[in-house]
């Protein structure tokens, strides 16, 4: 049986870096610096999130290129990375979210300046499916909200980063929307039902999204096409 549910994630052993960096399978939620956040609706509840040990993948020049499942953990097979001791595994969890918009601290293309309290931030509309992939160290905020409300699926949230870019131990806060409890829109229910299985994504079996699993705004008719997933060529992130 594949590992599911944040409550079933074991405590990290001593020496685990807990890295929850983004992989190269699809577009992830990426919050890079202090004060940056995104507005999301969870499409996967805590008891359905997938978790597994992952090793980083690097090219010949040593540049980070994503992650691969640890075969020792997933398949009870010998793992060269574990055997060598040069590339320790990190425990990560995976879930699906719908990202409505993303708020940055710096201006950029397709961003609209907005006054928020005493500061000016820059918001970009996203309206797309994202993979919510993080270190097991960040599961507590999700579990806390799920324990309080009984589910993560009945309201929107803001996922907020505290920690400058490059920080080895950033923190994340999951704040419920001021709108309170709202049923998941029917369009998002349909989107969620068509998403790939998280285990298939984590294992690299799924590398594209078909017509029922598209990274496009819901409610918009599209031609039948295959959309390649996001290839991560950016810097490795610590969390």
Automatic annotation (TrEMBL):
Disordered: annotated segments: 1-22
Protein name as it appears in the record: Bacteriophage T4 Gp32 single-stranded DNA-binding domain-containing protein
Species name: marine sediment metagenome
Lineage: unclassified sequences, metagenomes, ecological metagenomes
